[in-house]
Design brief:
The chain is α/β, with parallel strands linked by helices. Helix content is 37%, strand content 15%.
Length: 340
């Protein structure tokens, strides 16, 4: 039995301030079992609560629709949400708490009510985490390596328990966002491979402590970079990080042509046992989906477009009316027989 010292418990408690007192509740089973699709057509729509608070509404052929229903009507079957440790912290993501636990719980209820799959993306930060920045949560800044591992596991576990309590357990979880340069800098930078692997294993352990049915994704931003992808994956696998899905971001200004994406995903799909997906993209909508959904073999395949109601080539105009971009997905859904 592993005994945690009083000193470590003190620091662990500091690390958990971001999610509040979540330990006192009765566990309950999810309202529905895990969603299982062989092909995923997903969207990250984490900005929706902010857009709705600003009075934004969405219309499909002149009919006002909830954004979840609008996505479903055009073939989508999965929603991705990002979550920060404490978005209200100084220099945090949102003083109003957007993409914090309570906001995530409300959005998760809407996902499950729509009958869609749910991917939860842990940033392990109070604000944006990506290849250029992986800032520690403010409450974790003074923690040691072991205390950081304890806090990652506890934050992950308690967040998922809170979602499980209301019957909205995610079907899939990312332990970190675009983590090819590491997480929790400077400790977990990529050059510190053992430390980084320890942090990721702590996140995986937090997920597994709640459910063995949740599929775990490692999300890297190397869509067209095969050597970089393999270096990261090989080193994490070598160090015992257990996961189910390889997720890649693809933005052509950083990750090359669609052909480079195809070559990379095809190699990863053949080389590793894990499923391979595009976890973020916006441009080349048809091409990206043709590549991802046509990978050989009988693995789960899919994509998640990033914030299509508000960023990049959006699905709606400034008045909230659907445009030609979303109609692309109606055709993709039909062509690849996407189930819902």
């Amino acid at each position: 039995m592993h005994i945690i010292s009083l000193s470590r418990l003190k620091y662990l408690a500091m690390g958990l301030l971001a999610i509040g007192a979540l330990s006192a509740y009765k566990q309950s089973s999810p309202n529905s079992g895990p969603v299982k699709f062989k092909q995923i057509l997903g969207a990250d729509i984490s900005f929706i609560p902010q857009l709705e608070s600003e009075g934004r509404k969405f219309y499909d052929n002149g009919v006002s629709k909830d954004p979840f229903q609008l996505l479903k009507d055009h073939g989508f079957n999965y929603v991705r949400l990002r979550i920060f440790n404490n978005p209200k912290a100084d220099s945090g993501y949102s003083a109003k708490g957007y993409c914090g636990l309570e906001d995530t719980k409300k959005m998760a209820l809407r996902i499950k009510a729509a009958g869609m799959g749910f991917l939860l993306d842990f940033h392990y930060s109070d604000t944006w985490a990506d290849p250029g920045k992986q800032y520690k949560p403010a409450a974790w800044k003074a923690l040691s390596n072991q205390q950081l591992q304890d806090s990652i596991k506890a934050f992950t576990e308690l967040t998922l328990k809170a979602l499980k309590k209301q019957g909205t357990l995610p079907d899939m979880v990312q332990v970190g966002n675009e983590i090819n340069h590491g997480i929790l800098w400077p400790d977990g930078r990529l050059k510190n491979l053992d430390t980084l692997a320890g942090f990721l294993k702590a996140g995986v352990s937090g997920v597994r402590a709640v459910s063995g049915n949740i599929r775990i994704m490692l999300h890297i931003a190397c869509g067209g970079q095969n050597a970089e992808s393999r270096f990261f994956l090989d080193n994490m696998i070598k160090r015992g990080v257990n996961f189910d899905i390889i997720g890649e971001s693809y933005y052509p200004e950083w990750h090359g042509t669609p052909d480079s994406l195809k070559k990379n995903l095809t190699d990863l799909n053949t080389r590793y046992k894990q499923d391979v997906m595009v976890a973020e993209y916006s441009q080349h909508k048809r091409e990206v989906n043709d590549i991802a959904l046509s990978l050989p073999g009988n693995k789960v395949k899919g994509t998640f477009i990033w914030e299509p109601f508000s960023w990049g080539e959006t699905f709606v105009d400034k008045q909230g009316n659907t445009n030609e971009h979303i109609k692309t997905y109606t055709n993709i859904s039909k062509d690849y027989h996407i189930s819902q």
